[in-house]
């Protein structure tokens, strides 16, 4: 572990050679804190969403409304995590409004924060809106996400197809899943 200001910190798992603000396709997994089952249950190889799971699914599908340069691929809500594919600009060109919004950012903010088009901003925004709304509607549950998320850069059609199939069939293999906690 590296030290930052004399404190230990977890080093990034991100590829240093990859621009996470540029074009790319990503397979993303986000877990609930302590892998608690907030999103529903998987029975008979099918996912039955809870109210919270339905909220999470709804917010996921709204991502392109807030980030017009994003196209969503396969997606699934599981009892304690989600899997999804996010495409940043490889399937379509960014809309003019998105380009103009990025240009309006000041140089200061550009230098200290991720670009508005980057995967970290999309995931942070998604997790934030879910947490806010879930905790407003269900305050006693103490909903929270795991601090980090996992992403895999999808390189190639074969990889895209395998990942899409994995996401689609995830409920069928739930009891063998590494995120399964009875």
From TrEMBL:
Q: Which domain of life is it from?
A: Bacteria
User: What InterPro entries does this protein's entry cite?
Assistant: RAYT_transposase, Transposase_17, Transposase_17_sf
Instruction: Identify the residues that the record assigns to the Transposase IS200-like domain, covering every copy.
Output: 21-170
Could you identify this protein by its name? Transposase
Gene source species: Flectobacillus rivi
